[in-house]
Sequence to fold (47 residues):
Amino acid sequence: MATKKYYECERCGAKYLEKSLASKCFYWCKTHDNSCNLDIVKHAVRN
Fold:
């Protein structure tokens, strides 16, 4: 069974399957005082 690689937002800890989404989340958190953007976070994976 192959394990999936997750990319984590360094600010809020949300995990994504795509590095680009983790980067978008990080920059959103950084520039909007750690708030969440629903258009980005809806792609986060649940553990």
Summary: The chain has one domain: 7-41. The chain has two helices and two strands.
